[in-house]
Specification:
heterodimer, A: alpha/beta, Beta Polymerase, domain 2, 4-stranded mixed beta sheet, two-stranded parallel sheet, 18% helix, 30% strand, B: alpha+beta, Cytochrome-c3 Hydrogenase, chain B, 3-stranded antiparallel beta sheet, 12 helices, globular
Amino acid sequence: MSQEPNIKVILADQLRDEVRAMRKQGQRLVQMSATRLPDEVELTYSFDLNDHLTNFRLVLPGEDTVLPSISEIYGCAILYENEIHDLFDVRVDGLTVDFKGNLYNTAVKFPFGSTKAPCANPEPAAATNP
Amino acid sequence: MSRTVIPFGPQHPVLPEPIHLDLVVEDEKVIEARPSIGFVHRGLEKLVEKKDYVEFVYVAERICGICSFIHGQTYCQAIESIMDVQVPPRALYLRTVWGELSRIHSHLLWLGLMADAMGFESLFMHSWRVREKILNIVEATTGGRVIFSSCKIGGVRRDIEAEAITGILKELNAIEQDMRDVCKVFLDDSSAKARLCGVGVLSKKDAYDLGCVGPMLRASGVSQDMRRLGYAAFMDIPVEPVTRSEGDCYARCAVRCEELMQSVRIIRTALTQIPAGEIAVKVTGNPNGETIARTEQPRGEVVYHIKANATKNLQRFRVRTPTFANLPAMLSILPGCELADVPIIVLTIDPCISCTER
């Protein structure tokens, strides 16, 4: 059955403690999901205990995003975190197994990366002969 | 002893889809398995920016070529949850019937592949012969064999007439007997047992800690099945998870064999109790909200995270497939096994790589 997500918003520096508490309770890591918003990246962590879902929400800046890894706490998080790096251009700090951007072979680098236009080159390119 | 690295895949006779493992071996014993995936990433989650939420049912169904119906169903359930759509009871029962037919044909496909991997060719052919009968029912009731396209937001597109229900129930009796015969060989034959028993053992604790789902988790003794959440007709038809305690390849095979019979019982109950009435309601407007939907696919729990902002295109569509959740456990049970057992162990997670990479 589809469920209205019960989401608790947390800060990045609370993440590992909150996840450790989940692990201590015997919660299963169900999924990690990222959403690209205009100026932010939104992370959703879902945990399950006895078919009951608990979700955490973490909102990070959209540029130069760094996410604390939870792979030391939940080993299976390595795939989620490598995926989030490869698709969303989020640097994951403390990954236990880092595929270094090679988990997925995408036609476009960071397909869900920042949508902001890159800075204009301050020095115009030298004119070339036709 | 010197170590050798043997590449396994991405193209390998036991792999229907590409995954690569670098197997570090000492003599014939696997010491470490290093995975590479990403060969068939299709960017389906990104496609949500191009296809509107109604069209996207067709994309969701194409995430997987085997459990396509349940992908479509989960997507529809998620959107219906956001839009607060009340699906007619008859449609919920029809979804259950097609979902369980999908489970049977997926498990029979897996049994065939497993027989083939063991070199038991006649058993492979028998498994797929029975699967063909299931596909015939699917084709007769939906028009498709693998991609059904019968699920839509608000209900289903096709009904099953009373006369057809009688025919399906009769056919199910014969199919059930055929499946019992096939399963008997898998579970009792000495050569099959020699390849499966005690191979690739995953403890109950490791299965849970590594985030396993589906038959992989239940074969290690954890009683978990998303059908217990009561989606579709499972509110009226309770499901007791099939579990084993051994946690080896044989247990994973035995769980799938028993789930075949369980699915037949569910279909029989659903078709007998199916209520009369409409099969769909009209859905208007655009979804606005967020949901996390979970269902039980043949390979285990699938999770859909959907976020919508009242436009025709969803803001986020994210799928966590069962194989994605089972990969860490597969990598944990390979070290220590014999090289010759690697194909069997990899197959017992029932890997679906297209699903995983989307």
